[in-house]
């Protein structure tokens, strides 16, 4: 009977939310490394945030792309990470240093990319409106995989568990199994809906253990197949799926599907809402539905390779789903029992006696004395969860964790050595442009305190018959304007947008910083420098008093908080005696009030209400007590 339960009797799937990971930027895609110790998250501003999943802290941030990151994949040993962005660029990254080793430019957007499970020199790329491409990183060459019909190029592809075969699927439901080394067709079959009607293939995912794989199709059904049966059927076979998983009530379409780490469960994310459906693969029954925030759309789902933990992305935030940990003290002490109320403890006789102290022990002599137990403290037993079925030892070169450098408050200048000598800089200036770049690199390296980074090699991939004007699905969202995402990419410069800034207040008469003279007394956010520049442009001296108007206007009533201005708010060439000290003393009209910059965004509003006095030189505002009393 125990043969029916190869795994533990406990539940191996998450049951509730266990916090979130906020990448500051808007997260779009995520993937675990092979051991689940690091989680790479691709963001909307082109950055890759690598989380230490044990501490739930950010271990590294790589400024990878300018446009949003749409796909990520780890190498087998965890030292390399390949990423794709919506501007058709594929980049290879060194995780430890954060440097870019290679770049590939494709003519169309990249839908998915995947490292070879065993060979770190090969990467499978699925461009939009094109056949899949197999990249070789060492020589920057590529091979276009054969497809079933040239007229249909909406093809998805994936390596099998060990990378021996590549499975491709098109929009007409045709699955091709290709040999990875020779690209020869090994097997093929067509996914039908039961009435000989075909359905489009949306994604193909393989389990980390076992030979099963799933196919997500456009008819909202997830089909689970056995890879060994597919290879046995050969070309144009008709294999039957092991399971058909679907939501019969709501007819939910699936955005992303994947297996659990042990291959016993399947999770599917809804394309309509933030909801995760978990099925048991062997039986096919729905065991759990995890609901996120209402109204959010799901972008990506990843299951932890070893533990029952799921990471999902919606609204730019990574949500973590895990099991409810219940404290079980009886696991540590079998005779432990919980009490409802306090009970007086009575110690039994000889309760804490380990053995009889009065008993005499015979002395060990000869061979008995030499039989001491040896404890091996040098060798390390491999962890079964980290090893594949065909491996006995772990990869000792694997990158499980990222070192984090401590933050130094007062770092030394140039800790990596002296700056380049003046002779080298002079020589670079005399030799011309050929040495100027290297000199700049040396100076930049010395200023940063790190060796200069090597420039990544960029290779342009030419694909025949592929349109170059396609837009990535992340950028071009179909439907009404409400469903469209915000503008992707890093924010441009703020030139020309200061007048619309929400932190910039509108100025009114009576406020400090209001332009007194229309020729050049600049607005409050520009400060004294812009005001003097404007006056100089108009042909006036900044220190000259404004011209007297005929007839002279009566002096304006003094402002309530002109009674207690700190000394730093006065111009350097004027004294506080020139300014009104009481509410009844009018301000002299011949002295200009030079505008000052506001310190905090919220202070101008309080200044207009008469509750606070804005100080130009200090960050501490002066509270107007009289205005508060009123």
UniProtKB/TrEMBL annotation:
Any single biological process term in GO: chromatin organization
Ranges of Pro residues composition bias in the record: 545-560
Principal place of residence: nucleus
Any coiled-coil regions, as ranges: none
Keywords from the named record: Chromatin regulator, Nucleus, Repeat, Transcription, Transcription regulation, WD repeat
WD repeats: 62-103
Known role: In embryonic stem (ES) cells, plays a crucial role in the differentiation potential, particularly along the neural lineage, regulating gene induction and H3 'Lys-4' methylation at key developmental loci, including that mediated by retinoic acid. Does not affect ES cell self-renewal. Component or associated component of some histone methyltransferase complexes which regulates transcription through recruitment of those complexes to gene promoters. As part of the MLL1/MLL complex, involved in mono-, di- and trimethylation at 'Lys-4' of histone H3.
Protein name, per record: Retinoblastoma-binding protein 5
Native organism: Coilia grayii
């Amino acid at each position: 009977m125990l043969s029916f339960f190869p795994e533990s009797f406990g539940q191996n799937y998450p049951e509730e939310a266990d916090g979130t990971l906020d990448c500051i930027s808007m997260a779009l895609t995520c993937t675990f490394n092979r051991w689940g110790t690091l989680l790479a998250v691709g963001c909307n501003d082109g950055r890759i945030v690598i989380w230490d999943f044990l501490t739930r802290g950010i271990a590294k941030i790589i400024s990878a792309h300018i446009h949003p990151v749409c796909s990520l994949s780890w190498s087998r040993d965890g030292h390399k990470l390949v990423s794709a962005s919506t501007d058709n660029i594929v980049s290879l990254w060194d995780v430890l240093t954060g440097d870019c080793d290679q770049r590939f430019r494709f003519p169309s957007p990249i839908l998915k990319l995947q490292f070879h499970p065993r060979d770190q020199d090969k990467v499978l790329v699925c461009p939009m409106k094109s056949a899949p491409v197999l990249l070789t990183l060492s020589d920057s060459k590529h091979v276009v995989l054969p497809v079933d019909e040239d007229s249909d190029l909406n093809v998805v592809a994936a390596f099998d568990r060990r990378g021996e075969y590549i499975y491709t699927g098109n929009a007409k439901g045709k699955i091709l199994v290709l040999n990875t080394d020779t690209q020869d067709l090994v097997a093929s079959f067509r996914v039908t809906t039961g009435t000989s009607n075909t359905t489009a293939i949306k994604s193909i995912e393989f389990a980390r253990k076992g030979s099963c794989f799933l196919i997500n199709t456009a008819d909202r059904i997830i089909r689970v197949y056995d890879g060994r049966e597919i290879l046995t059927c050969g070309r144009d076979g008709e294999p039957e799926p092991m399971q058909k998983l679907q939501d019969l009530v709501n007819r939910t379409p699936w955005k992303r599907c994947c297996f659990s780490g042990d291959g016993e469960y399947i999770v599917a994310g809804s394309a309509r809402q933030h909801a995760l459906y978990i099925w048991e693969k062997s039986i096919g029954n729905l065991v759990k539905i995890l609901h996120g925030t209402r109204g959010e759309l799901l972008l990506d789902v990843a299951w932890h390779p070893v533990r029952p933990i799921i990471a999902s992305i919606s609204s730019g935030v990574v949500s973590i789903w895990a099991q409810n940990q219940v404290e079980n003290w009886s696991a540590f002490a079998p005779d432990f029992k919980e009490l409802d109320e306090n009970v007086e403890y009575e110690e039994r006789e000889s309760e804490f006696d380990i053995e009889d102290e009065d008993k005499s022990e015979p002395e060990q002599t000869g061979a008995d004395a030499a039989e001491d137990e040896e404890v091996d403290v040098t060798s390390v037993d491999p962890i079964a969860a980290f090893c594949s079925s065909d491996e006995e030892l772990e990869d000792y070169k694997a990158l499980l964790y990222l070192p984090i450098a401590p933050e130094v408050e007062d770092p030394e200048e140039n800790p990596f050595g002296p700056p380049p000598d003046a002779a080298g800089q002079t020589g670079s200036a005399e030799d011309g442009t050929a040495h100027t770049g290297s000199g700049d690199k040396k100076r930049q390296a010395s200023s940063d305190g790190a060796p200069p980074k090597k420039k990544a090699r960029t290779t342009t991939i030419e694909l025949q018959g592929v349109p170059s004007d396609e837009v990535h699905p992340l950028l071009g969202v179909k439907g009404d304007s409400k469903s469209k995402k915000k503008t992707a990419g890093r924010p441009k410069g703020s030139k020309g947008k200061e007048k619309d800034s929400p932190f910039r207040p509108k100025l009114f008469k009576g406020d400090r910083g209001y332009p007194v003279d229309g020729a050049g007394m600049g607005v409050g956010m520009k400060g004294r420098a812009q005001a003097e520049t404007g006056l100089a442009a108009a042909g006036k001296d900044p220190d000259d008093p404004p011209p007297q108007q005929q007839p002279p206007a009566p002096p304006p009533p003094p402002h309530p908080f002109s009674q207690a201005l700190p000394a730093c708010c006065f111009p350097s060439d004027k004294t506080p005696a020139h300014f009104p000290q009481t509410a009844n003393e009018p301000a002299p009209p011949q002295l200009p009030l030079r505008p000052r910059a506001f310190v905090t965004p919220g202070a101008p509003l309080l200044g207009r209400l008469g509750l606070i006095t804005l100080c130009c030189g200090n960050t501490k505002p002066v509270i107007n007590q009289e205005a508060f009393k009123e």
